[in-house]
Specification:
Structural class: alpha+beta
CATH superfamily of the largest domain: Chloramphenicol acetyltransferase-like domain
Strand order of the largest sheet: 17-26-25-24-20-23
Distance between the termini: 88 Å
CATH class of the largest domain: Alpha Beta
Number of helices: 12
Shape: globular
Strand content: 25-35%
Radius of gyration: 31 Å
Amino acid sequence: MAEVITMPRLSDTMEEGTVAKWLKKVGDKVEEGDILAEIETDKATMEFESFHEGTLLHIGIEEGDGAPVDTLLAIIGQDGEDISDLLNGSVPEKTEREEVLDEKVEEAASTTEGDTASDYTVPEDVTIVTMPRLSDTMEEGTVATWLKKVGDEVEEGEILAEIETDKATMEFESFHSGTLLHIGIKEGESAPVDDILAVIGPAGTDVAAVLNAQKSGPGISGTKADEPEKKVSTQETAEVKSSPKPVADGQRVFVSPLARKMAEEKGIDLGTVGGSGDHGRIVKRDIENYKPAAAARVEASPAAGTAEEKVAMPAIYIPVGEESSEEQKNSQMRKVIAKRLGESKFTAPHYYLMIEVDMSEAMASRSRINDLPDTKVSFNDMVVKACAMAIRKHPQINTSWNGDTTIYNHHIHVGVAVAVEDGLVVPVLKFTDQLSLSQIGASVKDLAGKARNKKLTPAEMEGSTFTVSNLGMFGILEFTSIINQPNSAILSVGTIVEKPVVKNGQIVVGNTMKLSLACDHRTVDGATGAQFLQTLRAYLENPVTMLA
């Protein structure tokens, strides 16, 4: 009789799993004890063996797909056996053996919790490093690259790894010295804040005992236990040592271990891959996005017909190509952008107000300011300064909705949206209303450079009370933005356009710019938004008033 295999619970905290790789395909013979698939849990990628023998008749979860525990994973039975009832019906109750396995998992978890702490105390010179919270909104992080491997000596202040947060990829340095004894989160894997990232201590430390004690002891707040049945062995904690392979010209290839492994599996010559990591280092995304150079193909067709026929019948070209697409894993930054903007758009009632501003005086003023030695300001700097001064006169714009209350911010921190390779970040100019135009210009330039080089610190991206988004440099005439929560408004800035305008009853050449203000109707009424825009226009059309 056919046996239904369900997604197993491979750890005490596992709620769903992802099939990383199938080691058998439909039609293959399966022996009891054979490895069916590699299952990625919430903590690790583990081999899942079959408790049954027969033929693999059906695969319910494809490679790369995830599903909750107990979802139909596969069906094993006899060749030609009818499994339509199993596919159409509900998943049967667990087999006795599967129930025993679950009981063992729970038993191991309770045993660990009850006994380990009393048997072993983590030495003072051993440090358990957890996934750090590198930004105020960070809930989980992804290890982009390990810069140390198990067995390496680590000095305090050395960079351990590059961690991809919801906002940027940041270097994470060690606050301790010792030997890197254990890596808990592999390159490319994600984990919640406070999950075990690594263990640092004296060489020869019993890592298994440390990890078991960490599960049950008070340890570091927020850390989670590893799989109850999982034993930490040399095979799991030691990484393969391999020397970088030279490219054709004899230069060394800098490549992460994960990228090297992926390249070997795909048969990719690392010498032909461009690296996007620091110092040209090849990382996971470079292998995922690698496209081999297409060989030039020249196709010739035999000539036919007379010269007259060739003149009379023009050549008909039928385009020939291959349809293709690819699916790329979303970065942590992209996932958080989607989550935050979705929450903002569908919880805050947006409305939009648009005005057109005469920028003739602003252009003349900017030209005179930039003639001064060591001074450089942009139109965006002028807009940021004008916004900060207009907020002074309209404090309702500088609020945040807080359910039963509204928060009135007495400080003015303007966030400036900056496009980066993986998405969008918003560095913040603190106390913007107290800065001069030249100070704003220098600060924006510095923060934007850090953003594009992934060097922004969490403190430089926190605390905005209002946001400016400018797409004018891309020639965009006008657009609307989604409010950057918990702000109550965001200003969208278009490009300056030279066009005919009417002044004093005469048609003259003018320079105008369109501005769009998105407001949260819970905190900012239409009249308040309109008055703010009127004040903003007054400052931009008469820039000298911003210097008063």
